[in-house]
Amino acid sequence: MNRRRLAFGALSGALLALATTSLKAQLPEHLRDYPLGPIKASGGLIAPFFDGWIDNGDGSVTMVFGFMNRNLEEAVDIPLGPNNHIEPDQFDAVQPTHFPAYDQEDRRGAATTTRAAIPGTTIPRGMLRERGVFAVTVPNDGTEVWWTLTHAGHTYSVPGRAASVAYEMSSAPRALGSLNPGIRFSQGGPEASGREGIMGPRITASVGIPVTLSAFVQDRGEREDYDTESSLFPATATWIRHQGPGEVLLTPVREEIDGADWGEAATLATFTEPGEYVIRIRVDNFTAPDSRFGNQCCWSNAYVPVTVTR
Q1: Tag placement on the chain: N or C end, fewer CB within 10 Å?
Q2: Is 20 helix (H, G, I), strand (E, B) or coil?
Q3: For the chain, how many structural domains are there in total?
Q4: pLDDT-derived band at 120, boundaries 50, 70, 90
């Protein structure tokens, strides 16, 4: 009886191994090295994601993109060029070149990186995705926008297209009145309130010498008619390296600003290498009960270009 059991077990193991090998062979070549297994500290994929599209009501649509870094510890840099590009070319160079590694075990939904910590409520537990990093606006005529990333010998491309209502997003107030917060670089200046954001004035800096980056932010929620604990919630500003060749120390990385009026968010940025950088400021109101990162609301982007010399 024991011999029969051993023989049956050996046969079952062999069949399972054969089936696994056969299934792996049927997978596309670029997916064979990424089985459904534990996420590794490094060596995992970097993939672009199309988050959805917004009908602007003026004959144009806005395509929203994010990414996944499937590593627990390795932050990856992919410079603009053949390994990180957008088509059509007119939309190229707005995408990130720095892809932080997020800690999926943070029970508060916080995100951290191995290069510059990003505490806060960026990524829900169990997710390795950064949503709504940038967006582009195109005519609503079927135009497609493709983002391609190549890393560690693997290439992934994702199309942005306004074809499926399942991917349509809304800028309307949420269930309890939350809206995308506002961002300005000067009082009374142009305002960003969405993923596409605005570009601030260029800052010049020197390697190793801290420089102040700042913006004015505000919660824009319309909650007067809803039963919420407050009509306005704090706007949380998070500073993130979007593009650039070297590490950047940002102090603080994150701060809360009273939502009652336009308040100033600021950070000291210290650059380790010369070059051209873009620092993204993401402003959310995730303290509101109807605003969550995984629900695609409510946060806005703005970008600060920085030229760093020695």
Answers
A1: N
A2: helix
A3: 3
A4: very low
